[in-house]
Every structure is written in C-alpha cells, then in structure tokens.
Amino acid sequence: MSARPLLEVTDLVAGYAGSRVLNGVSLSVAAGEAVALLGRNGVGKTTFMETVMGMVRATSGRVAVDGVDVTGKSPHAVARLGVGIVPQGRRVFAPLTVEENLEISVRKRSGDWTVERVYELMPRLRERRTNLGSQLSGGEQQMLAIGRALLGSPRLMLLDEPSDGLAPAVVDQVGDILRELAGTGMAILLVEQDLHLAFDVADRVAVMTKGEIVHSSSVAEFRSDGRRANALLGVG
To answer: How many domains does the chain have?
Structure first.
C-alpha cells in the first residue's frame, strides 16, 4: 500500500437544500485496500459517496484523490483522476443493449480496461451482449453497472449497495468480482447492508452514525466484538 492514501477525506460537511447530512466525516482508503462503510439506513452513507464523487457539493472539508484536492470539482473531473462509481439502483440504460451500454462508457483516452476485458471478468455479459438493459436480471444489471464503471479504468471504485435486491447466490457472484478487482490493486469503498458481502470483500470497516464516522477497525477486529457490532448496527 502506498504511503499516501489514494482517497483522503477530511472533516467533510455536506447536505441538501440547507439540511446538513454529513457532520465532519474523515475517511481514507489506500491503494489496494477495500473499505466497507457500514451504518443503518439514513445515516448519510450515500450522501458521502455522492459528495466524494462531486455529485453533491461539500459545505466544508476536503476530498483529495492521490493528493489532488477535488473538493467541489465536477464528477467528470473526479472521474478523470481515476474514480469510478456504481450507484445504488444500477441505472443501466434500459433501451440499449449490453454492448451499447459498455461502448458508450469507453473513455476516449486509452486505459487498462476494455470491453473485452470486462467480458473476460464477467462472461455472463458476453452471453447477454445483444440483450437490452431492460431484459437483464437484477444481477446482470449489477454486473453491467460494474462493467461500465471499469471502462473508465478507475484506481478507486465506489459501490453503493451492490447487493440491493439480489438473490444470495448472485450476491456471492458480485463478491467474487469485487475480490478479484481488489486483487488487482484497485482501491474499493463499499457501502453495503449485507454484512456477509461486506466482510467477505473488505479489509477494514468504518461505521457511520448520524453523519459521522464513529468506529473504524479491521474486519477481523470488528467481527470479534459482537457486542460492539450489535450496538453500532443492531446485529449480532
């Protein structure tokens, strides 16, 4: 892992229409590290991801990608520095085929990821390449959303609830994909309610409550303390 975090967020404050959601969040992710951001619904996890990506404007604080301050920059500017996002709900283009969804996501500049490489990682997409987005299962749509993000050749991937609405067997497939990506040295920040998936993929967990990070530890340390997990997340 690099000495300088690939993502470094410091004292981040943000919200919507005068409503404050994030209350001074600080979080870092190193190159090659997978971090799971946990917390009950409504505590600000999605707002955090969207603020990092530039989709929500920060009120104060700092977001840096590989040492470059991107606070207040557009999503396109953040993406150019090597950040990709897979939003909750997948948001694939329903009228386009799988291949068309992927082709429109290819960056003009050369990168490590190509449509062919996406197909190698997720062969099911190759099988379904002529199907419309509206004809895909939830799991296939999630794979397509991941594939589109990869075509930006990100060094850091933000994923918001990738297990949402998926059957357990499909969640396991998504976990396999994320572990393989982490193994390439890609940094991953994962917002997830499915703790099995989060613990399977992540090296470290951070827990958010009411717009603040209240706990950070390795996955092993967090899992060894059931009382703390129950107090923070309402689980055993």
So the answer is: 1
How confident is the model over 102-121, as a mean pLDDT? 86
Closest among 101, 105, 106 to 130, alpha carbons compared = 101
Domain of residue 67 covers 7-88+155-233
CATH number, domain at 78? Answer: 3.40.50.300
Model confidence pLDDT, tens digit, residues 41-65: 899 999 999 999 999 999 999 999 9
Gap between the Cα atoms of 227 and 189, Å rounded = 25
Q: Which tokens belong to 235?
A: 């689980």
Taking the C-alpha atoms of 129, 130, 133 and 138 in order, what is their torsion angle to the nearest 10 degrees? -50
Q: d(Cα 145, Cα 62) in Å, to the nearest integer? A: 28
- Of 95, 108, 122, 102, nearest to 181 (Cα)? 122
Share of the chain above pLDDT 70, in %: 97
78 CB-near residues (< 8 Å, 6+ apart): 52, 53, 54, 65, 70
Buried b (16+ CB within 10 A) or exposed e, 95-131: ebbbbebbeebbeeeeeebebeebbebbebbeebeee
